[in-house]
Amino acid sequence: MSSTTPSVTLDYQPEVIDAQLDAGNDIYCRNMDIDQKLLDSVKGFLDEDEGRCLYEMALQAGRMGPCLEIGSYCGKSTLYLGAACRKSCSILFSIDHHRGSEEQQPGEEYFEPGLFDPQSGHLDTFREFRKTIASAGLEDTVVPIVCRSEVAARRWATPLSLVFIDGGHALETVFTDYNVWVGHIVSGGYLLVHDIFADPARGGQAPFQIYNLALASGLFREVDTVKTLGVLQRRPGAEMPAILANI
Ligand SMILES: C[S@@+](CC[C@H](N)C(=O)[O-])C[C@H]1O[C@@H](n2cnc3c(N)ncnc32)[C@H](O)[C@@H]1O
User: Beta strand 67-70 with 92-95: parallel, antiparallel or unpaired?
Assistant: First the structure.
């Protein structure tokens, strides 16, 4: 490590933080260097505990290389990942075509009328996303990539320390995201998958299936599960099959 690189200490101490939060202190968010008001104002689907876990994992991963998320939406997960990347002097690639997933389209359960652009006749979350990143001062840390995930992956050649999959939730889409990105995760790096529901009555099964596929591959070990967020780590020494090592 060069002498100009600040050393990073992990400041995630759940007991201390819980006690401070109980005392009405927002120390946790100050430790994460994220404005709580901004977090609260950004539309999104991420639970606060899941966000903290994203932050913690990106803080660890950031020291090994760049992080990447699939599914930025309005930037809620980006705030957590980006703040950790900034702190660890890393960078976050944030991919989204910004046209919304199936369930966010007009007439569907998660449609947000305010995000619909009548001129183009499409959902457009990019404007909100840019606003979020600018408000958080993350423009020098987050690299937005506006296209389908598999397009961004076509000529990708940068090893990644963390991949967070939270894009489309149809099986084909999550399966594609897994297939095109997993081969870029460095040994000891992390794969995080959102919206894992073991019980089909609680939610769609595609992310859970992919999570299980990753485990069954033998490439990853389970690190943690925080609510619906699954955290896996690539086993050091686990050989990436040629079909996934798509560099
Ligand atoms: C569940 S939202 C992401 C939520 C976000 N992580 C948060 O914390 O609020 C899913 C996003 O994935 C994007 N998406 C869906 N399929 C995609 C694909 N194939 N490539 C890129 N983005 C995709 C949608 O446009 C949508 O914004």
Answer: parallel
CA-wise closest residue to 188 among 147, 142, 246, 235: 235
The candidate with the shortest Cα–Cα distance to 10, out of 27, 25, 31, 24, is 31
Mean pLDDT by 10 residues, the chain (247 residues): 38 45 45 89 95 96 96 98 95 98 94 95 97 97 98 97 97 97 96 95 94 96 97 91 74
Cβ of 75 closer than 6 Å to ligand 1, yes or no, is no
> Looking at residue 239, what DSSP letter applies?
P
Is the minimum distance from the CB of 80 to ligand 1 under 6 angstroms? no
- pTM for the model stands at 0.88
Residues constituting the chain: 247
Q: Give the C-alpha separation, 60 to 83, whole Å.
A: 12
**Dihedral over alpha carbons 212, 230, 144, 51 (to 10 degrees):** 170
Mutational pocket test of ligand 1: of 39, 73, 177, 197, the residue with most ligand atoms within 8 Å of the beta carbon? 73
* SS3 at position 64: coil
pLDDT computed for residue 30 by the predictor:
46
Q: Indicate whether residue 39 lines ligand 1 (CB < 6 A).
A: no
User: What's the pLDDT at 104?
Assistant: 95
Ligand 1 atom closest to 176 (CA): 19
pLDDT confidence of residue 19: 52
Task: Label residue 48 exposed, middle or buried (CB < 10 Å: 0-12, 13-18, 19+).
Answer: middle
The reply to whether ligand 1 has any atom less than 6 angstroms from the CB of 82 is: no
The pLDDT score that the predictor gives to residue 244 is: 82
Probe residue for ligand 1, chosen from 104, 123, 131, 166 as the CB with the greatest number of ligand atoms within 8 Å: 166
